[in-house]
User: Fold this.
Amino acid sequence: LEEQQQKQTEKEAEAATAKQEAETIKKNCEIAKKNLAGLQLGGHRLTRLPDGSYTRLNEEERQSRIAEAEKNIKEYCQ
Assistant:
């Protein structure tokens, strides 16, 4: 009986972990799409630096971030 309870507990834990992973993937997909949309608006986008200050992205940086967002969309939005 204890063995069955332990197996059931393990199955429940695995299901909870899988659900949490699916939610994280969904959130990552939404973030990647939002990032891409913001970068594609054009103009000189401001980005926040780790110290809290802001800087403008040059075109090369913007294109690099667009490529990264597209890669994240392919990875998380399946």
